[in-house]
Known about the structure:
Elements: E1 18-22, E2 25-38, E3 43-51, E4 55-62, E5 66-77, E6 80-83, E7 87-90, E8 94-100, E9 104-109, E10 115-116
Antiparallel strand pairs: 1-2, 2-3, 3-9, 4-8, 4-10, 5-6, 5-7, 5-8, 5-9
Amino acid sequence: xxxxxxxxxxxxxxxxxxxxxxxxxxxxxxxxxxxxxxxxxxxxxxxxxxxxxxxxxxxxxxxxxxxxxxxxxxxxxxxxxxxxxxxxxxxxxxxxxxxxxxxxxxxxxxxxxxxxxx
Length: 118
């Protein structure tokens, strides 16, 4: 374990948004900034996601659940519209898609990789 707190700080304002590409699939209009990379699983488990207006992430499963906090804009999951300040916890095995008619920025905690179902 590192004892210097600087090792654990992510300066997200100094990072560029990167296109979201998972398993070779480019999700147009969705961008990511990794916040916490987990060495054991070789993936980021805490991220920022930015949806451009009209962007859609397909129907998928969360084997270990997820946590979402809306920083700006609005996101639609199933029949629920989340707006800035809203928090959502989905339990393990919860399935849904995500869209954003007007664009949004989300804080995500995703313990395990999602499974695309569409």
